[in-house]
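Lab notebook, page 48
Experiment: co-folding of the full assembly
Goal: obtain a model of how the components sit together before planning crosslinking
Operator: M.T.
Materials (sequences as entered):
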Amino acid sequence: MPDVPAMRRSVTWNRWSGVLFVAPYCAFFVLMLLIPLGIGIRLSMTRGDLFGIEAFVGLDNFARLFADPVFLQAVWNTFCFVLITVPAMTVIGLALALVLNRTSRLAAILRAIFFASTVLSVTVVALIWRLMLIPEGGLAAVLARAIGEQPVAFLSEQALALPAVAVTTIWWGIGLPMVLFLAALQQIPRDLYEAAALDRASKTRMLFSITLPAIRRTIALVLVVEIILQFQLFGQPHLMTGGGPNNSTRPIVLFVYETGWKQWQLGYAAAAAQVLFALIALAAMAQYYLSSRKDAA
Amino acid sequence: MRRMLALLPLALVSACGNPDARTELVIQRFFGACQAEYGAIADPGKAQGECGIITAMINEFEAGNPDIKVVENTVFWPGYDQLTAQLAANGPPDLVTMHSSAIPDYEARRLLEQLDEDLAAVGISPEQFTAAARAGVTVDGKVLGLPIDVWAPLWHVNMNLFREAGLAVDGKPVLPASPAEFRAHAAQFRQRTGKPYLIQITNKDFAAPTRIFYAWMLQQGVPLFRDARHANFDSPEGRRALEFMKALYQRGDSARNLDYAGAVSAFLKGEGGVMVDGTWMVGQFDAASGNERSPLFRGYAVRPFPFLFHARRVALVDGHNWVMPRNARRTRAERAAARRFLQYFAANDFQWARTGHFPAFRAVIDGAQWRQLPHRGDIAAITQIGEPLPKFVRRQSPIEFIVGEEVAAAYTGAKPVDRALADMQRRANGILQSY
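Observation: model returned without errors.
Model output:
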């Protein structure tokens, strides 16, 4: 006969031990995310600064935001930036991972080199790229003059400034997708490739029939992570362009920072932050939904 | 052994404590960090530049006041984000450097201590301040800080290029007296030197284009702000000022695509005739004029803005001040230490004025010692005509950024002048009407 009370105790303990394992995370989630989110939503319906709320204004801040051309341009800039950087980082990160997914010493060195930029602070990255791109004595200007061309003012031309910030970001952030893809590639069983080789499958066929389907969850993860990260663009335009020229590189987070800290419009800034939160949540959920549907199919 | 191990954490915690019995005075300042060069210098007379001089002054104060421990927090210019956060967290420093233009924001929220009595206790009277310095720290009759200087944007002139362009007489620059003359001088300069007349900042750091725009508007005799809630940029005077500057830029009479560092570097390399920048650069440019290898060698002059529009002789000025943020936890001893610090800075205003800024004390500005410093006689007129923005205008710093951004957009043709004026007006009014 099994010892029923002992089994019951074991089940109860297992249940509680599970709760204990997730409790610290839940506590931090509530304290550091849910409560600040609630405070932020409340702030977005007020007029005030860091030293106090002056009035409850309902949805006035949101109405003002959607009539503010600077904010609307910031939303557009942010979307453009995400559209440039996320696909580029995913494709380049995957390409690098495919090329460097081997055991040679050279591959290890190159992996370290490509990942190295990721550990730099945004201040260093922005400074390096600013010095490279300025038309007076920057590396790009020197190279342009060396081939007899006039230097291009990447950070002063309205059409070029946001792509320049995007290139800087791709250089800075390419390490993370590369490492995620490398980890995924190393999980694919070797025998699948051996079987494909016996069937004389081409490299392209192996890529599309074995590799990409095997890492589709990682691709989805990289896309979601990068969408969330790139929507939060701040440091690079703050340090490289100040949001200019003519508001062409001002993203939503820089708008929030300027409005809240420089202009002391905390309620207005909080409203912009809620819009950003909604955009990120929608984009990430849409991506998750699409990738889940593919999995189900 | 076990007992010793048990006592070890206690010993470590004790070692981390502060055994220093001196009164701690926490000061927070901008002007940069240069401890490597000036950390051991306690004689301000041996220091150069804003950073060097203030570091040496603080060192000298600490050496002369061994009962006070100065904790110095150097912040990235202008440091108001940190200060605002410190005030919101109830942990502000004892004294902070603050621009006169920022004082109304903090005073409106009652975040600054009134210092009339503290200054009187150490023998300082507001009567001793220059008019502009006094206006900078006074709100509703209350003195909220110790002014240490008044500064103004100036025209820094490369005299070597001016001579080459035929724009120098008796070793002095010939500056334009009307928009038409400005255009003629700039064209002559470009024709004879192949370089732009003006080096100005139009990229990322937008304060400089704003100051030029403000200057031309004020010279037309109109206020920059109609009242506390309304700017006056979108006006015939604003349009005249901006169209004039845009035409200059479009004709190639202004350097392009320069941020602050790039503009200073371009001027030092002799790539243009005039750089618009503040009093703080007088010392550095003057030093370059003594360097044989510099394009400015024996060829630097500095002047107030030329008067192109003659409705009013006025120069926009701002100032640097020490202010005391409110802190209920500040002890009497700490406040007394702060008073002595202010007393020291008041007594050494001349040393600070060596940076290029105008002294905040009339006795210094009237004294022969200051006038004997290089170029001071050439810019002293600003002490008579200098005016800060009215104290009813809050959020001057973000408005300055917005105006500069729109001015730069008009310069480059990214926006028509009318739209840039309308946008700067709308954005500034949005801020002025947000509190």
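Interpretation: Residues 269 and 295 of chain B are 6 Å apart (CA to CA).
Next step: discuss with group before ordering constructs.
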